[in-house]
Queue: 3 jobs
Job 1
Amino acid sequence: MKLKPNNAADAKENSTKNMTRRQFMGAIGHTASGMAVAGGLVMVYKFLYPNVLLEIPSRFKIASINSLQPGSHVFEPEHRVFAFHDTRGYFFALSAVCTHLGCTVAWKSEGITGHKEGIFLCPCHGSEFTKEGDVIRGPARRHLDRYHMAVDEGQLIVDTSETVNTIEDMILKV
Ligand code: FES
């Protein structure tokens, strides 16, 4: 004997299945939205706090004491810093950034009249500076930045965040 289908019961069962499917689809939609928002937040975080260190550290080793012989100098291009070992026996470090508009000055060891020890010459507008960074000729109006130097395990350390005003404060005697 064939049973007659109960239309009301089937309709209710279908309704329950439909609701469940609807709820399931809704849950998937909410999950996808949540993942999209989370992904967006991760992207924003990576943008604000990138893994790459964009700033170079201000404190760095420029040379070993033994490698910088009296009367010689070294130029560190990343920080644009010169370090000298003066023939009088002391060390000092200067910025190579021209105080006019920021070009990199060049060291001219042959010097000019009255500055036989050598000068810094700016290739952009011709400013000249003494070996200790004082202005000889403009348009620059301020001396080159002078840095405090230190020695750590035989290495000469420069910190570009520590500028000093006077030549005396710049000099490092070892
Ligand atoms: S940038 Fe050096 S003189 Fe102008």
Job 2
Amino acid sequence: MRIAVASGKGGTGKTTIATSLALSIAGGDQADDSEVAGPISRLLFLDCDVEAPNAHLFLNPHFRERVEVGLLVPEVDESLCTYCRRCAEVCEYNAIAVAEECVLIFPELCHGCGSCTLNCPEGAISEVPRVMGVLEAGPTPHGFQFARGLMNVGEAMAVPIIRALKKWDMGLDGENTQVEEGSVFWETIIVDVPPGTTCPVVEAVRGADFALLVTEPTPFGLHDLRLMVEVVSELGIPAGVVINRDGTGYEEMERFCKEADLPVMLRIPLEQRIAEGTARRKPLIFICPEYEKYLREMYERIIEIVKGAVR
Ligand code: SF4
Ligand code: SF4
């Protein structure tokens, strides 16, 4: 079961919900941060918000694995090059340009598709690795595994890092623990999706069994929820909504959910204790313990919806 926790809009409380959902599934263990749980359950928390990952602040993982990730980009041997321009013609991303007697490569624009290498008639192009970020993983004190991607400062493309994170075999106990092929290993994967509705979001949500869309009852919240609903329906993923900071009196949100046949899975009221607690990096279920039960019930409802969708 893979649940993507997403929000078209940043700052809606997506990570607050994702982290406490994971904690509730794990049993709401308030272990000391210095402790590392013994056996790791088959629950994985995946922070795909690679530009600004922050779920670790709530879950305190002890990172034990770290790998660099990136793309293979072209390198030209100009002693073989005839400056025929074929490589520039086939590059859809304008990442390579050929001047009179000079080939210019713009690595930050390169998507690593390999088309230039394949099409070079002189065999003048080879591919060299370019590091764009790192993947890190380790157990949390709450008895489940945590993994995240972290993009290098100044990088423009988050998708290759998210893709690598989803393909990463963390190698626990010699098992195949890839996210995309590892559903055999992982019983539940909670994916913290980047904010927005652009390519990194699509990459993070792709393959999920259910999308939990966190929103707030404001005109901006509704606008971005609509966009997110379009994304998940395009990907064919069933979805439900969490209305955070509920109680503002904005009725349009309810109307939209009803018309779009989107189940409201949970409402969290606008409360000072929650705002203060999360600002102190305290998970929601440790601020309001009653939410452990609500989130657990929501998880069971998600399982029922997914079962119904695949029947
Ligand atoms: S395709 Fe090959 S030979 Fe032609 S300009 Fe590019 S690198 Fe040079
Ligand atoms: S690998 Fe693809 S994106 Fe990169 S320069 Fe070559 S053709 Fe362009």
Job 3
Amino acid sequence: MKPGKIIIIGASSGMGRKMAELYAGMGNKVGITGRRDFMLREVQQQFPENIFTECFDVTQNENISRLESLENKLGGLDILIISAGTGEPGKELKWEWDKQMIDTNVYAFAEIANWAFNFFTRQDHGHLVTISSVAAERGMGWAPAYSASKSFQTRYFEGLSVKAYRMKKNIDITCIEPGFVKTRMAMGNKLFWVVPVEKAAKQIIHAIEKKKRKAYISKRWRMVAAAMRIAPYSLYKKFV
Ligand SMILES: NC(=O)c1ccc[n+]([C@@H]2O[C@H](COP(=O)([O-])OP(=O)(O)OC[C@H]3O[C@@H](n4cnc5c(N)ncnc54)[C@H](OP(=O)(O)O)[C@@H]3O)[C@@H](O)[C@H]2O)c1
């Protein structure tokens, strides 16, 4: 892949951070965001020539101005990856948790995706990527707002893909659905097939290079997703 200009929303930790390190190590210019400035600086110090930072909360009213600022620092934009997300599994249904998930995973996500799609439309090239989740496939009892917000992301990206095709625009759309990846978001004691974060980041980068419309991390989660979609509710409700 020839060096490009990449923005990763939510790259202070987890998969976003690992992708930023890998992309910068390959010679790309990478703009990274998150709320924890010290973690963004740690990444920047590893690759002072290639990493540019903007520290902000996506649930505040700064997304567009910060995206424009980062695009200016990079001097262009080829790929935008939305990795910022939040999930609070729990037995209780707390509104403050639901609100945080909806504000981050739905409202901020859509605002950023909308900006990037229109930016790529104007320049007639670009690649938009989101890290959704296998949880998008069905409603989850442990986090209804999380699974609903990830369904929103997956459906929104399918819609954008159709839109780019109909507009005959040179825009690629990739929706990643991980199962479990070893980051701070993978909580609970019923985890299985947990993928190390570096392996996940490499698989996502590979899917982007191959311009896949949809990819599961790891690949075997495709089977789980398919089983979730066809399972009758009477059976499904006993497992999630
Ligand atoms: N790990 C898994 O098992 C798993 C499975 C399926 C899907 N996913 C999805 O993968 C994505 C990445 O998560 P991860 O697993 O890599 O966990 P992570 O380490 O918690 O990464 C989440 C990133 O999002 C940023 N973020 C969260 N809320 C934000 C806000 N309000 N404003 C700005 N940035 C915000 C965080 O930065 P700050 O905290 O510094 O703001 C962090 O950089 C998420 O969308 C998650 O839903 C994860």
